[in-house]
Amino acid sequence: MGVFGSGLSRLCAVVAAPTAALAARQVCSALRQTPTVELRLDWLRSDAERARFLRWLKKNAPRRAVFLATCRRKEGGGKFGGDVAAELFWLIQARDAGCRWCDVEIETLRKLPNRSVRGYAVPPKILLSVHDFDGTPALPRHIDPPAHGEADAVKIAAAAHTVGDSLRLLRLAKHSKNFVAVPMGEAGFPARVLALREGSALAYAAVAEATAPGQIGLAELKHLYRAHQLTRRTRVYGVIGEPIEHSFSPLLHNTGFVARDIDAVYLPFLVHRLRDFLDAVPELAIRGFGVTLPHKESIRKYLDGCDSLADEIGAVNTVVVRRNGSLHGSNTDYLGVLRALEKVMQLKGSRVLVFGAGGSARAAAFALKRAGAAAVICSRRDSAARALARAAGGEAVPRRALRTEEFDAILNATPVGMHPGESISPLAACELNCRVVMDFVYRPQKTQLLKIAAGKGMVTVSGVEMFLAQGFAQWEIFTGQRAPEAAMRGAILRALAAKESRR
């Protein structure tokens, strides 16, 4: 890792823009956060724009900055339509503009005499890159570029379809010198954050538009995940689910860690198969993780034990990894339901419809039972509704009954209406015969269901309230400290407002 330096210089900002003016603005923005910048010359839309940008760079680039020039041809996964000679021409111009490094793809090297760029006046430091957009190939145990060979460092960027794929790249980073590991895709996202900790010489982050699947924004990588500060002593937590990209749990928990100055990070894991993720827990030293759809019930068979309430509910949303490696589960969803509803109604003696029969619905049904409310279950599958009603001591009703039945409150415990399906409501206006409607979906804050309910004059409760309450409780289980609720709430509300204002 020494070839690129240490500390913040290992965070590499990626500048990619169609025009010289936009690229220049991105450079200025990047340098406020890191002195190491990759210049994607292939993203500039013409040779004239490339020439204009490099003239600007030669005149304005600060000496302390380290620029890495890339003019990736389409054959190597880039945007440049020229041939190898044209690629080398722009890399030579980049050296004249002050770039010390260049990224040369393996496809380019194979077309050169002696498979070497050392005879060309390209930037003196060479990063040899290999890209596989289909999957993670078979990898050697280590890669150590010779000090005076055809490359000063090697980068492998590969699509990770599972957590296990990304782990193989991190292992290679751990055992190699001057090596850059870039797991691509949503499943590779956590490994991108942990790459520097595991020995990668660089971690790439976008200044504006992402240039590779799963690439993180620079501000997010530096300030939310603090990738440059993570060490083997850093406690690793996460949330597992499918899908998981929409989750605000990393923002919630990492905000809490920053506010309390705790050396910990919380990551989103896209998990198709639980076994694949659980096999990675010891190697990544994961101390605990949240559980969301569709794993809240299936995770139980992998646990060594769980709280009596979680056992009764039959669903787990929080898992702690104990010192001996055993997994202990609990459920904080029920707290989220109770705290959100208790702000707007008296639960004891009320009759509440829970729409859905999955893990969140189970938590809601048992929470209502404990609060002295009568839980009524309705689900797309009548058999699932009846099973949950029996377990929670409630009753089940078919969907057709909702047009005539009345309730004190209706809870949507399904993901219907969640981003990106915001225009859909799980229930029609004629099925809302109650005083209070609560939606467990929190993105968007005002779902289509809540808009319909508000139009009928009903009290509405956003899923944000449940999300925050269960998240505070989960954070406290992980850390043993009181959650900084104001900071965590503020971060979530600001992020949600920003997301919705951009639509």
Written description of the protein model:
The structure is a single chain. With 503 residues, the chain is α/β, with parallel strands linked by helices. The chain has 3 domains: 2-231, TIM Barrel (Alpha-Beta Barrel); 237-333 and 475-490, Rossmann fold, CATH 3.40.50.10860; 346-466, Rossmann fold (3-Layer(aba) Sandwich). It is built from 16 helices and 21 strands. The strands form 3 sheets. A 9-stranded parallel β-sheet has the order 7-6-5-4-3-2-1-8-9. A 6-stranded mixed β-sheet has the order 11-10-12-14-15-13, with helices on both faces. Helix 1 (20-31) links the parallel strand 1 and strand 2. Helix 2 runs parallel beside helix 3. The radius of gyration is 26 Å and the shape is elongated. The model has no long low-confidence stretch (mean pLDDT 95).
Task: Give keywords.
3 domains, Rossmann fold, 21 strands, 503 residues, six-stranded mixed beta sheet
CATH homologous superfamily caption of the largest domain = Aldolase class I
Q: Which whole number gives the mean pLDDT?
A: 95
Low-confidence segments, given as residue ranges, are: none
How large a portion of the residues is in β-strands, by DSSP E?
Answer: 15-25%
Count of individual helical segments: 16
**Principal-axis shape:** elongated
In short:
The chain has helices spanning 20-31, 47-60, 84-96, 106-109, 163-174, 189-194, 218-224, 249-259, 274-284, 308-313, 333-342, 359-370, 382-392, 448-455, 463-479, 485-501, and strands at residues 11-15, 36-40, 66-70, 101-105, 125-132, 153-159, 179-184, 203-206, 216-217, 235-241, 264-270, 286-291, 305-306, 318-321, 327-330, 351-355, 374-378, 395-396, 409-412, 436-439, 459-461. By secondary structure, the chain is an alpha/beta fold.
